[in-house]
Amino acid sequence: MSYLPFVLAAWIFLVGIFGIVRSRHFIHLVVCLSLTQSSTYVLLLSIGYVKHGGAPIFKDVPLGTKAVDPVVQALTLTDIVVSVTVAALLLALAIQAKKHAKTMNPDELRPVRG
Amino acid sequence: MVPLQATIMILVALGALAVALTSDLVRLVIVSSAYTLLLVVLFVVLQAPDVALSMLVVGTIGYPLVLFVAIRRDRADD
Amino acid sequence: MTRRVRLALFGVAACGLAALLLWSITGLPKFGDYHGAYGKILNKRAPQERQTSNVVAAVVFDYRGFDTMGEELILFAAVMGVAMLLREPREEEAPVPEDPVRSDALRAFGVSFAGATLVLGLWIVAHGYVTPGGGFQGGVVLAAAFLLVWLAGSYRAYRGLARAPFVELAEGSGAGGYVVIGLCALLIGDAFLHNLLPYGVAGKLSSGGSIPLLNWASGLEVTAAFVLLFNEFLSERAVLIDPTRRPS
Fold first, then answer.
1. Contacts of C79 (CB under 8 A, 6+ apart)
2. Please, which residues bridge with residue C54 across strands?
3. Contact assignment for B39 to A42 by CB distance below 8 Å
4. In total, how many domains does chain A have?
5. Contacts of C147 in chain A (CB under 8 A)
């Protein structure tokens, strides 16, 4: 029971990769990729958790109260906003690929030759 | 571990499976937003309000819009 | 490689990866049993050293400010990539299509909430280092305020509000402003991104040294980046004109 969040992170990672391998449409592939990315957020925040700790905000809270680790939260919050823009870049690539290959199915794309 | 934490973790696991198995695109956007909301509750329960705010804002505004417009462009080209 | 072969190969590899991950999890400390020293030191010392009550904002903009600069540049590069991929060269300026809103409820919602969302976004950015919030979260809310103008009004009104030169200028100033604030510290003789302003008292808006400046720079950049992203994705005629609608 005390290892449940880490098992959850591993589960989400494997489910995300399963979705990528099985997908038939590029947009579904991009969504599963961001699902895989969300497993890293869960893992980071679970590592930083302190038992009976509060949020690391000290407004009107005396210094010295137990709080969870702020460094992993800092890493995660910028990552979330940036991942949306990277997903948008991938979707733009998929839209451009459709113009050339006329298909959005990853199975039907052939590598470019010549 | 508090029962609330265990419950929300199991719900997140089921939500992840739902996102990977949905094949219809418009439904996928809605299921992905619901999964994002479950993640927001998980982050609040893990005492991370900044991260929860970030995920909430991105999962309801940024991500569904980008996905819907990509789906629309894909269908309009057919 | 056919689909079935690929799935079988994935099945085998996934079992191996799952076993490896489960074995590695047994080496971690238990959930809640945090061993790191850096987090504990930061929670004790940061509110007094940097005079911010939100320790996460102090870590993002001060202790690890260099990493945040890298993230901002990733955002900048990704939006530039989207603009390059989706922007088509047009010989003459194509007329912006007119798409009137057909639902009264949507129009009422957009009109009443666009102003409120703008104020909420500005509040979240401004109070980022006092309570949970900050430039990244508030920036996306501000971009949503622009989007409500599109949802409630027409595309023409939205493009009139979010003109391309201004949005691009805002994005450049946000990303460049962050670097310039860091360089100003070099001019004084300190390290890059060293603190410039007096610290003040924690809990007020005028505290934290140069954290407010970096906060607003990143908020400006995130807002402009998302508005630019929406512009690029929405600029195609086929997206706005409903193909099933009969021309009247």
1. A85, A88, C171, C225, C228, C229
2. A57
3. yes
4. 1
5. none
> What is the nearest CA distance from C236 to chain B, expressed in angstroms?
8
Number of domains in chain B: 1
Those residues whose C-beta lies under 8 Å from the C-beta of residue C86, and which sit 6 or more positions away, are: A92, A95, A96, C232, C233, C235, C236
Task: Using the CB atoms, write b or e for C41-56: b if 16+ within 10 Å.
Answer: ebbeebbeebbbbbbb
Q: Which residue has the tokens 């809103």?
A: C101
- Does the distance separating the beta carbons of C56 and B50 come in below 8 Å? yes
Nearest CA in chain B to C30: B1
Helices (H), C154-201: 155-161, 164-188
CATH, residue A45 = 1.10.287.3510
**pLDDT tens digit at each of 248 positions of chain C:** 788 898 999 999 999 999 999 999 998 888 888 888 888 888 888 888 888 889 999 999 988 989 999 999 999 999 999 888 887 665 445 555 566 666 788 888 888 888 899 999 999 999 988 889 889 999 999 999 988 887 777 666 777 777 778 888 998 999 999 999 888 888 888 788 888 887 877 777 878 888 999 999 999 999 999 998 888 877 765 555 555 554 54
Both tokens assigned to A64: 């010295």
In this prediction the pTM is 0.90
Please tell me whether residue A57 adopts helix, strand or coil conformation: strand
Structural domain for A70, as ranges: 4-108
A90, B27, C15, C62, C132 from B73: Cα distances, Å: 14, 17, 38, 41, 37
Burial status of residue B33 (CB atoms within 10 A of its CB: 0-12, 13-18, 19 or more): middle
Concatenating the DSSP letter of every residue in C55-102 gives: HHHHIIIIITHHHHHHHHHHHHHHHHHHHHHHPPP-SS-PPPPP----
- What the block records as the tokens of C45 is 């010392």
Of B9, B27, B7, nearest to B18 (Cα)? B27
Structure tokens that stand for A85 in this block: 């823009």
- The verdict on a CB contact (< 8 Å) between C134 and B50 is yes
